[in-house]
Amino acid sequence: MGDRSFDRPYTVALIVPTGIGATIGGYAGDALPIARAISAIADVTITHPNVLNGAQLYWPMDSTLYVEGYGLDQVAAGRWALRPVHQNPITLILDAGIEPDLWLRQLQAANAARATLGLDLTPYLVTDQPLGVSLSRSPSGASWGTVENLDSLLRAADTAISELGAGAIAVVARFPDEETAADQAYRSGNGVDPIAGAEAILSHAVVREFRIPCAHAPALAPWDLSPDVVPRAAAEELGYTFLNCVLAGLSRAPQFVDISTGEGSRRPGDIAAGEVDAVIVPESACGGAAVLHWSGTGAKIITVADNATQMQAFPKTLNLSVWSARSYLEALGLLAAHRGGINPFHLQPSLSPLVAHQSSPAHTAPPNV
Fold it and tell me: How many CB atoms lie within 10 A of CB 101?
């Protein structure tokens, strides 16, 4: 662990990139059990909404930080730090393109979060133009999309911060309803989340422009009831809005602190790139900015082989030094050993004898004195 201090929390980043068809974490909150298990080992777990959002379902974990993907990249690069908070005032921004019935569903979800969870929501805003979200697919198979009037969202976000004092922003945008073959494959457990890539554009833009926590929930008409929906996709079948988990996550999302000009702006308790001890990522998805940055900080990169994705960014191709785990269950064992200061590869039936470094004289017995 080099010069890493023992007087601070053991911190783990869990990354499952959005919209790349991850076998685990590519559906509605299905990586949440992984985050819960990691939180039983780590003092602090850093992960992103794609892991923690389960549509109608979520799980409160005080030691888990809900960090939007662009912000996570900036933290890993050493430009920003994370400052934990007790509660954020959240501004809800609704797409002007949402129809009245779906509009009401979003407001009911927001009011329910205030009444049952005690969340702090400011008055809501509506974009001055329909956002105009469209969906597409990249050559790799990952989901993507475009937002016709992204500037309208940024204007609303600016108002939320300057006039309403928002500490976090929840965005609800109208997404296309037509059920495609990609949607059917996703519901049956064989496809990529068709809306995740476009969702990321919305939250990335707000975080990049204003350095404030942001997450998105799509406005969609309910799909027809189907008996073929797999358990990993079932959370999205339960209601008319996916806003619940977003509001719960944003309520305690850490604030971003710009440390790019030096450490002077940091406070005790802020978390920067160098405080992350381990990063867990699917084996084929190691090409993201956060993983590449953290690989150079001394953080232990742990890859998981059985979480297949549409990507082909393997550690060997990228010349990354990693600990390879076959499953998340095995990765949890590596974490526990690492936290305990134990070489996990010594926890096996056989152990090779210690050998001399090649530049030293080789001896099979002690040298003569």
Answer: 9
